[in-house]
Amino acid sequence: MQNKCQRRLRLVEVKIQGQLLRRICLHWTLFLLLSVGLTVGLHVLTNDPSVPMANQIMRMAANNFWPFLVLVALLPCFLVDTVRLSSNFSGPIVRLRRSMEGLAQRNDTQPLAFRDGDFWQSTADAYNAVVDRQMQMQERINELEAELKELKGEDATATAATKCGG
């Protein structure tokens, strides 16, 4: 069961997706700092030692400005892509949790459907099978309770007739 609707809200599970975004930022920052440090270190080690270090660093910064700018510009792209991808696994879990809460609190038995591109499509099928089974069992319980009431009603009538001398 796939839903063709597009998810409007991308941060569907703020705790999980926020943690992912923080991790991406941390990893990107570490990568950038290590890259800059390694570039500066190699540049200083491989250039003429008679040239002052400040001049070497300024020249290296000028030569590497555009690649550095590209790396900085890529961070928002990484973050947006992470949110989009993470919504494909966070969204289904949020919908599953809401469906289970609805079933537990209100006996809401609407079929669960995930959107196209969401992960864990088989989870929706398994959940729907469990709900169908639960509904069948509930119907059978209702039938048995009705039969029990009928039998108790007949027993009460028969007992009353016996006590009255019938």
Structure description:
- The chain is mainly α and 166 residues long.
- The chain has one domain (2-163).
- It contains four helices and two strands, in the order E-H-H-H-E-H.
- It has a two-stranded parallel sheet with strand order 1-2.
Indicate how many domains the architecture comprises: 1
| Topology order in helix (H) and strand (E) letters | EHHHEH
* Adjacency order of strands in the biggest sheet: 1-2
Mean pLDDT: 86
Shape, please?
A: rod-shaped
Largest sheet: 2 strands, parallel
Helix content: over 70%
Contiguous low-pLDDT stretches (5 residues minimum) are none
Sum up the structure in keywords.
166 residues; rod-shaped; mainly alpha; two-stranded parallel sheet
Fold topology:
Layout lengths: L1 E2 L10 H33 L6 H11 L1 H42 L7 E2 L5 H43 L3
Parallel strand pairs: 1-2
Helix pairs in contact: 1-2, 1-3
Summarize this, please?
α1 packs antiparallel against α3.
